[in-house]
Amino acid sequence: MGASTEYVTLLASLPALGPILAAKNAPINGSRLRDRLKMLRPEHQQEIEAAAALLAWSRLRLDHTDADLVGRARRVIPALRSPFLAKLTIERLELRTVMAALRRRHSGQDAPPVGELWGYGRFVTKIAARWREPGFGLERSFPWVVAAREKLERGDTAGLERIALEAAWRQAARMQEGHQFDFEAVALYVIRWNILDRWTRYDAEAAAARFSDLVDAALKAAPAYSGASTVTAGADT
Questions:
Q1: Is residue 98 part of a domain?
Q2: Are 89 and 51 in contact (CB under 8 A)?
Q3: Tally of domains within the chain
Q4: CA-CA distance, 97 to 173, in Å (whole number)?
Q5: In this structure, is residue 234 part of a structural domain?
Q6: Which of 110, 134, 106, 137 has its CA nearest to residue 122?
Q7: Which phi and psi angles does 223 have, rounded to 5°?
């Protein structure tokens, strides 16, 4: 699937995603985006849906294991006809593998034994071999890995997720060169939209949690009720 101008009209109808750090809301909602994607050829739509479902951020069922994800990846990626989309998907799963390794080690687990399905991509063996090193020896490939470890050690889950989302965003942005109006450009838009949507939703969830914490703290600090009513008869409450 080489570069082409097949999807000029489709991509021209999609608003620019803009910088992730400044985003408060995705510039187009999921329903409208899905409507726009009906302009894709059926085989292209199926490719994007398969990759996006595999990469959906934090949408895995709680009873799904790392092995489930690896098994799905081994089925989905070889079936992708676009080498570009396969590469994009693999690199995102490699990022997720590093995050999974950080969490496993933080929880006290030993290095995964040979043959265990727990990660995907080029770095699985290296991570296991260098399990005790702060960044698994991956600082050149993943410059954020030590900072992510520090966030995890401090219990800063919000900071950890922001690092992962930013890394995924930059990863996709690097692959944009040479793709403006082709299938690959559409696939990149969808993958980046999913990251941006997760970013804005996570910020909203974090803000709601902070507000709830403030309310709880205020209630705990409030003076005890004295028992004397100050509400006048018939007043609205």
A1: yes
A2: yes
A3: 1
A4: 20
A5: no
A6: 137
A7: -65, 150
Identity at 132, one-letter amino acid code: R
* Number of helices (H), then strands (E), in the chain: 9, 0
Q: How many CB atoms lie within 10 A of CB 197?
A: 19
pLDDT in tens, 106-156: 999 999 999 999 999 999 999 999 999 999 999 999 999 999 999 999 999
Is pLDDT at 7 greater than 60 in this prediction? Answer: yes
State the CB neighbour count (10 A cutoff) for residue 177.
Answer: 7
First-residue to last-residue Cα distance in the chain: 66
- Whole domain around residue 72: which residue ranges? 8-19+27-218
Give me the pLDDT at residue 3, please: 57
Question: Could you tell me the two tokens for 18?
Answer: 């803009």
Contact 198/25 with Cβ under 8 angstroms? no
pLDDT digits (tens, 9 = 90+) for 157-214: 889 989 999 999 999 999 988 898 999 999 999 999 999 999 888 755 554 554 444 4
**Residue 237 domain-assigned (yes or no):** no
In a domain? residue 231? no
Question: Could you tell me the two tokens for 99?
Answer: 């995050």
Secondary structure of 122-170 as H, E, C letters: CCHHHHHHCCCCCCCCCCCCCCCHHHHHHHHHCCCHHHHHHHHHHHHHH
Residue 1: pLDDT over 70: no
